[in-house]
């Protein structure tokens, strides 16, 4: 992960058409009760589908020994490879 918080802010693909604005990619793990347990942050110019979703899931599954979980994502991330 970048050492400087500003290194995370990159212009990337924007589904809202805001391509000139910087962004970050955030993965969040919450409990069944909705309490935050862990997060993962990536640069805003990372291609979500192949470079963020699976690594984020893997980073959550191992330390929390998850056997069963629900992934919530937009349709761009929920392709056959990620499922």
Instruction: Estimate percent helicity.
Output: 10-25%
**What is the straight-line distance between the termini?**
25 Å
Sheet having the most strands: 3 strands, antiparallel
Shape: globular
**Assembly annotation:** single chain
Q: Structural class, from secondary structure content?
A: alpha+beta
Widest sheet: strand ordering:
1-2-3
Total number of beta strands: 3
> Count the helices. How many?
2
Low-confidence stretches: none
Number of domains: 1
Radius of gyration: 14 Å
Beta-strand percent range = 15-25%
Which H/E pattern describes the elements?
Answer: EEEHH
Query: What is the average per-residue confidence, as pLDDT, rounded to a whole number?
Result: 76
Outline:
With 83 residues, the chain is α+β, with helices and mostly antiparallel strands.
Question: How would you characterize the overall build of this protein?
Answer:
This protein is an alpha+beta fold and 83 residues long. It has one domain (5-64). Helices cover 19% and strands 23% of the residues. The protein contains two helices and three strands, in the order E-E-E-H-H. It has a three-stranded antiparallel β-sheet with strand order 1-2-3, with helices on one face. Strand 2 and strand 3 form a beta hairpin. The longest helix has 12 residues, at 53-64.
């Amino acid at each position: 992960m970048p050492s400087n918080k500003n290194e995370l802010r990159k212009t990337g693909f924007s589904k809202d058409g805001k391509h000139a604005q910087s962004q970050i990619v955030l993965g969040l793990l919450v409990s069944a009760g909705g309490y935050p347990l862990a997060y993962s942050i990536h640069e805003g110019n990372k291609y979500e589908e192949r470079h963020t979703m699976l690594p984020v899931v893997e980073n959550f599954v191992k330390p929390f020994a998850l056997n069963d979980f629900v992934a919530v994502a937009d349709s761009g991330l929920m392709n056959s490879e990620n499922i």
